[in-house]
Amino acid sequence: MIAPTGPQDRMRELARRGVRGFRISPPERDAASWLESPGIAAMWQAVGEDGLAMCPLINPEALPAVGELCRRHPRTRVVIDHCARIGTSGEIRKPDLAALCRLAEHPHLHVKVSAFYALGKKQAPYTDLAPMIRRLRDALGAERLMWASDCPYQVQNGHTYAASIGLIRDRLDFLTSTDREWLLRRTAEKVFFS
User: Fold this and answer.
1) What secondary structure letter does DSSP report for 153?
2) What strand order describes the sheet that includes 77-80?
3) SS3 at position 147
4) Which residue, 102, 137, 111, 132, is CA-closest to 120?
């Protein structure tokens, strides 16, 4: 076997071992640097060609760079982790949410609706996050949203999976049963296991 030589070769080797998504975070919180990086371009290209997913763990200020990468690599599946961390300050800022919703124009972009312990009021039952989740559902559709466990962080400091999943399953009256099915199972199946 020939040893992998570039980032795309290493990613393809990991994919052969069952990896379906690759989490990336910008260096020094500077996602704009991604736009000039040949390594990032090669990674996004390889992920798009191989039907895998790029999973940026970002803050809202990185959304424009992610949008540009989606434009440059339209076949690449993208799964933004934890609603782009909108609301970690305790406030769901409307401009941040609008920036995330604008990325709905990229058909292969998805959002993990997760890390409720770290967003908004940071208290179960997390219903203060309902307007943000509704706006994301309206912009992207339930088929492009997925709940995520955020293991092990969601179960620390008194937070529980029951409260996290209960927000989606039981507390958001604007979600249909089909929406819930997409958020809790089908979107992840489509993105990572199709």
Assistant:
1) G
2) 21-24, 53-56, 77-80, 109-113, 145-147
3) strand
4) 132
List the chain pLDDT tens, one digit each, 194 residues. 445 567 788 888 999 999 999 999 998 778 999 999 999 999 999 999 999 999 999 999 999 999 999 999 999 999 999 999 999 999 999 999 999 999 999 999 999 999 999 999 999 999 999 999 999 999 999 999 999 999 999 999 999 999 999 999 999 999 999 999 999 999 999 999 98
Give CA–CA dist 176/171, Å, rounded: 11
Q: Residues 187, 144: contact at Cβ < 8 Å?
A: yes
* φ and ψ at residue 145, rounded to 5 degrees: -115, 145
Kindly give, in sequence order, each residue whose CB lies less than 8 Å from that of residue 18, ignoring residues fewer than 6 positions away: none
pTM exceeds 0.70: yes
- Residue 92, token pair as written in the block: 């769901």
CA distance 79 to 133: 15
- Report, at the CATH architecture level, how domain 7-193 is classified: Alpha-Beta Barrel (3.20)
CB 143 within 8 A of CB 182: yes
3-class DSSP state for residue 49?
A: helix
What CA–CA distance (Å, rounded) separates 116 from 48?
29
Report the alpha-carbon distance of residue 64 to residue 79 in Å, rounded.
Answer: 15
